[in-house]
Amino acid sequence: MLWVTVSIKTHSIRRVGVIERSLDLGFQAFFRGVTSAGRLQEMAAYSAETPVLDTYQVVVSAFTDFLTVAIHTILYERDIYPRASFLAARKFNCPVRQSRHPKVCQWIQDAVSAVEVEMLKCALSTVSLVLHAPPPSSAPVERYVFSTAAFPLVPPSELLTPFTGKAPPTSDLPEQFRATIAKLSTLSSTLSPLPPDCSYTLIVELRDDPDVRPPIRADTPWIATEPGLQKQRIHPDDAEKEDERQTGIRKGKDLGGVKTTPVRNVESGAFVLETWVEEGRRKFEV
Question: Greater confidence, 239 or 108?
């Protein structure tokens, strides 16, 4: 078994960030977190200047900055919570939505911070926000994939070392992020409707590298995700499909989905990010 996909730990184990509505517009949240002001407030202190992508640390900071906004946007656009529970904000010089419940903001910050730790190890291939149908199935119905597979591989001692060669003096990342967020904001008009009361999970897929170890320990916020979202290493003789025979990898039944919608590719210097949405087969069965 090749465990390459892990998700944030939660008290509910299978479903992460499950939040029940209450009459006062407050929520009861079932997740482990730490007191924080929310990552969007932290981003206000992030340089408003166009970032110079000259070190891997800056590349990772730019990605986690964008990932935070993307998660808030998806939760709003897909009606995971009532829209009245979001406030209007601005990021990348465009209007965005941010949950105004502190526990939702806290969960997102904790999750993105955990992703950042693994990103700085150059351990991740993709980061995905997975939307699950309500119980009893809890089946993955949509998967928003952010592929960081093309990010550079940098030793831990060189996170702040400038990249070799001439780094771009400026970056158009804010403009590209703005276009990506705008595309995420319009996907609801093209994606099939979700069932009510969906929950969500943040999942990371590790690079297929023998030096990369799954961060599944008692002192980490990660657990192995369900088998349907895993990949399994198999012997070529056991392959059932041609791609399995060529790669030696069998994908879980909930990977890939029945419909894939590209969002946008973002490229600027060392920052190369591909984003797409997968609609799971069980979305059309629930």
Answer: 108
Q: What are phi and psi of 209, to 5 degrees?
A: -135, 130
Question: Max Cα separation, the chain?
Answer: 58
Peptide bond between residue 136 and the one before it cis (omega within 30 degrees of 0):
yes
pLDDT, averaged across the chain:
76
Nearest to 111 by CA among 149, 75, 159: 75
Stretch 31-52: mean pLDDT, rounded? 44
pLDDT at 240: 61
Residue pointed to by tokens 């149908």: 133
The tens digit of pLDDT for each residue in 164-216 reads 875 565 578 899 999 999 999 999 888 988 988 899 989 888 887 767 776 76
One-character DSSP codes across the chain: ----EEEE--TTSSSSS-EEE-TTS-EEE-S-------HHHHHHTS-SSPP---SHHHHHHHHHHHHHHHHHHHHHHTTSS-GGGEEEEEETTEEEEEE--HHHHHHHHHHHHHHHHHHTTT-EEEEEEEEEPPTTT--EEEEEEEE-TTSPP--GGGTTSPPSS---SS--HHHHHHHHHHHHHHGGGTSPPPPSS-EEEEEEEE-S-TT-----STTSSEEE--GGG-EEE--GGG-SSHHHHHHSEEE-TTSS-SEEEEEEEEEETTEEEEEEEEE-GGGGT-
Block residue for tokens 């806290």:
106
What per-residue confidence (pLDDT) applies to 119? Answer: 94
Q: Which residues contact 1 (CB under 8 A, 6 or more apart)?
A: 230, 232, 233
How many whole angstroms separate alpha carbon 208 and alpha carbon 252? 16
